[in-house]
Amino acid sequence: MSEEWLYPNAATPWGSSAYYSVRFAPANLRDSLAVLLGWHQQIRSVLDRVSDPSVARTKLQWWREELQRAFSGEPIHPLSQYLSPVIHRHQLPAMAFVDITWNVEAELLRPRPPTQETLEASCEQDLGTLFELMARCHGVSTDDTLKTARRLGSYCAQVYLIRDSGLLLRNGRHVLPADLLGNQGLSERSPADPELAKQLPELLAELADRARRYLGDSANDTRIPSALRVRSRLQTVLLDELHASQYDVAHCRVGLTPVRKLWHGWRESRRRG
Known about the structure:
By secondary structure, this protein is an all-alpha fold. It has a single domain (3-270), classed as Farnesyl Diphosphate Synthase. 68% of the residues lie in helices and 0% in strands. The chain has helices at 17-23, 30-49, 53-72, 78-90, 94-109, 116-137, 143-170, 178-183, 194-215, 226-244, 258-270. The relative contact order is 0.12. The model has no long low-confidence stretch (mean pLDDT 94).
């Protein structure tokens, strides 16, 4: 089998937050985590690579069928050939993978999230579910700790959405909740409307405040594996950077250097309860 899906892979490239979060995981888990991240990236990429909704739905259905083959030990796709032993080694639940595919399909068909609560729930079903699977790879099985892992994943997804909102809007994606837009009289604006871009920093500031409240004290739970806490820590540093830029993402992209990610990742990995 090709080793392109092992760590580091396309979903965990050097210098990325995903790279450093996996880097601070136990060495014997890094390939398993990278494979999970690679699978998640493949599912999410359907939103960006396929413009025809019917073709995208067909691709997602194929991946659901491929999941069945992976769970039965007869995968076809090279990535699934690595995913299948990861699933069985860590006893990962099939429904978690299926939930991620259905969430992507819901994003594909939904004009925009109707409420901020819907956005948070969607983020939890997406990256939150992935974080749960990663926590299970570390041997986490208690419901409350898995719930916290899901919350961390949802928070990270919300920060990514804030960072990427300018690019997504320029590409015609309705990413901001309808109720948030309605509060500013922007509910009927198209994603590329200049007036929406003008008010984007104010809208994102509100989303960022809500994301911080949503996270609460979850990031301080040291029962959570360090790989997930590192990812959450890096997203909090990124959110601070976005705040410092006054959420100027309409025409540029705010990010962290690899050195900053390494420093904060190392500090978080050393933290104890």
